[in-house]
Design goal:
The protein is 50% helix and 0% strand. The chain is built from 3 helices and no strands. Helix 1 (5-17) runs antiparallel to helix 2 (37-51) and helix 1 crosses helix 3 (72-87).
Length: 88
Amino acid sequence: MAESVRDRVIAIIAEQAVLEPGDVKMESTLETLGIDSLGLVESIFAIEESFDITVPFNANEPDKSAFDISSVASIIAAVEGLVQAQKG
């Protein structure tokens, strides 16, 4: 069975946070998971590579990005949207 977008994103975030995937909750923020700005950038690169997508993200101004990083759930939703758009 193919991994879902949700499972793959959680695995990437967990790897960056040095946590088990089961410790990454949908309501978690990157900050509460201990992921700093470098970890965020590395996570974005890993997501892009894993899904063969381009994330519209400005690491210097994340609040001005269309890619919502406010929680794990919002990151998953954004990635799902990009994956769907690519298939479109």
